[in-house]
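Q: Can someone sanity-check these two? First one:
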Amino acid sequence: MVAVEESIWIHAYPNSTGFDDPLLNPDYDPNLSKLGCKKVVVYVAENDILRHRGLQYKNALEKSKWKGEVKSVEVKGAVHVFNLQLHQTEDSKEMLKHFALFLNDKEKFNYGLGLGRAIM
């Protein structure tokens, strides 16, 4: 699995210093605590090979001295970029609604929306 992930990152960021480049691995980002927003929501898909990187980002923010609030939403049964590839599904539509509310500061991390298969 790690070899597949490394291959993805090398193709996406050919000038990176490797798998633990601060651009790719939040645990190595010395500026993470300086993130310029007050809240972050991290969406991950249960069957995404990069799922743990999304959760790692959430955990790194929580461990950093960043003063904001971070939450994650995991969509059960979903795959990488399901919301783009399968944009007409209920989960994709609910995720988009949820994200719009988040951006408009109306969501307050109250996950009462559909996303019936989501873990929050």
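And here is the second, same format, sequence then tokens:
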Amino acid sequence: MSSSQPSTSLALVLLVGGRALAGSSALLSPLNMTPLFGLSITPSASFLSRLFGSRDLLLALGSWFDVQGLARGQFVRASGVAARTVITLGMLIDAVDVVSGLVDYNSGTLSQRGAVIGAGGAAALVGLAVSVLSQ
């Protein structure tokens, strides 16, 4: 794994774009995202969706932009080590999401649709992160 800035590869664009899309959708329209994952709309679903959304949106921003610069309102491309750290943390979170989805699917608390979209989507993000980090 190199410490240089990740190149602007298709994998990086898909990783950041997918996170940003999922995150902003969950933040802005949480009750529309809930059924997409095969989950029931409950009073707490909006809050849980927004928790997911904020996490994914911030991981997208931190994978592309310098986190300290963002805190100052500056949109500067992330340096190699900082971007790779955020991408690695996101990949680890996604790996836990894959395991969580499989556990819930096997216990009957997550539908097949939820497992495919949730755990499958997380697995795809793990693959994209591995691709980006191997460049």
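A (reply): Looked at the second one. The two ends are 7 Å apart (CA to CA). The chain has six helices and no strands.
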